[in-house]
Amino acid sequence: MTTHREPLDSVLETVGETPLVRVHAAPEEVPVYAKLESFNPGASVKDRIGKHMLASMLDDGTLPPGGTVVEPTAGNTGIGFAVAAGQLGVDAVFVVPERFSVEKQQLMRALGADVINTPSEDGMGGAVERAHELAAELDDAVVPQQFANPLNAEAHYETTAPEVFDALDGGVGAVVAGCGTGGTLMGMADYALERNPETHVVAVQPEGSTYGRLFGEDPEADEYKTEGIGTHDVATNELFDPEKVDDLKTIADEDTHAEMARLAREEGHLAASSSAANCLAAVEVAREIRDGDVDAPHDTVVTLFPDSSERYLSKGVYRSFEEWEG
Ligand code: PMP
What we know:
By secondary structure, this protein is an alpha/beta fold. Helices cover 35% and strands 15% of the residues. It is built from 8 helices and 10 strands. The strands form 2 sheets. Strands 1-2-10-7-8-9 form a 6-stranded mixed β-sheet, with helices on both faces. A 4-stranded parallel β-sheet has the order 5-4-3-6, sandwiched between helices. The longest helix is centred in the middle third of the chain and has 18 residues, at 150-167. The relative contact order is 0.16. 4'-deoxy-4'-aminopyridoxal-5'-phosphate (PMP) is lined by residues 46, 74, 76, 178-184, 227-229, 272, 274, 306-307.
């Protein structure tokens, strides 16, 4: 990582302190900054929760030394947990719905974890159920439950958010983040709202996701190609607190696909689909602040690029929209 200048003892010390880079598509008056989470050792934002959750659970005895973590995951969490588990002497088993990228599943296995697939049509709910069944069959096994465990949001409260606030000397007007579990957004929102209760907090989801149900809407659930964010069953999103969220932005896969290509071509970012959705939403929020449609305590918007497009090349992310498998 670019900001680590001393020799380090373990790869876990390279988690976090990722770069914050200006998005040039944003209006001049209201800059947007994106935190490049692919600079983490497992190449995604989820390395932060892998390190924080496993270390905390070992510390407080929830996870016995040499025990096993069993986690339902879309992939990046598995990689983040696998990096940490290997270094902390813990075994790892991941339950991944079939449709998620094969690159991620290969990386989890390379890091020493076992990967078990569940049918795509059973969604994350099916993976959660299977993870609990598996854990019950093993001695010393714990399901960290990133969808419900406050340690997930706490990782971002303790690392992601303070890094952003330090880099911008506290000048953060809006926080914009795509929500899978919602852990990233909730942790950043908690930190930002403590510093200024007027901070504008925006959740991002793909079209077809049903987070709107938590805001009194009745959205139609549909498949989407954008990977890592959105939900089809808000009952599983226990961490997501709509009270902390001022707006929910819904981005169509077609727009996200075009933005991935633009980010690479124009701004040099090999950023994946959730990054592109975040970027479109963050630029929209910046325009709303510029035009006076939204009040924010500072004229600066912060978002994240959670992982890299390299992880999804086999799915044709840079081919035509129709060829992108999602
Ligand atoms: N983008 C990607 C690529 C992810 O894998 C995830 C996690 N599923 C997210 C965004 C969303 O993060 P969170 O679970 O903290 O909402």
